[in-house]
């Protein structure tokens, strides 16, 4: 297959018993989840920066 046996067994354990459309949906949801995690991290950094600016005495 051109992949390591470890990768194959990881895929097999992750997708075993899923229909093709279910596996596709799982992948889509995982991608969306990763995108949302990145957005949350960005917003948390923005909030921290704003708190830092607001906490300074002028």
From TrEMBL:
Keyword tags: Coiled coil
PANTHER family named in the record: LOW CALCIUM RESPONSE LOCUS PROTEIN S, TRANSPOSASE
Coiled-coil stretches: 19-46
InterPro entries per the UniProt record, alphabetical: Homeodomain-like_sf (IPR009057), Transposase_8 (IPR002514), Transposase_8_domain (IPR052546)
Family indicated by similarity: Belongs to the transposase 8 family.
Pfam families on file: HTH_Tnp_1
Protein name from the UniProt record: Transposase
């Amino acid at each position: 297959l051109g992949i390591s046996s470890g990768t194959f067994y990881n895929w097999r354990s992750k997708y075993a018993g899923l229909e093709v459309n279910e596996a596709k949906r799982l992948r889509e949801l995982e991608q969306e989840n990763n995108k949302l995690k990145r957005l949350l991290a960005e917003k948390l950094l923005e909030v921290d920066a704003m708190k830092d600016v607001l906490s300074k005495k002028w």
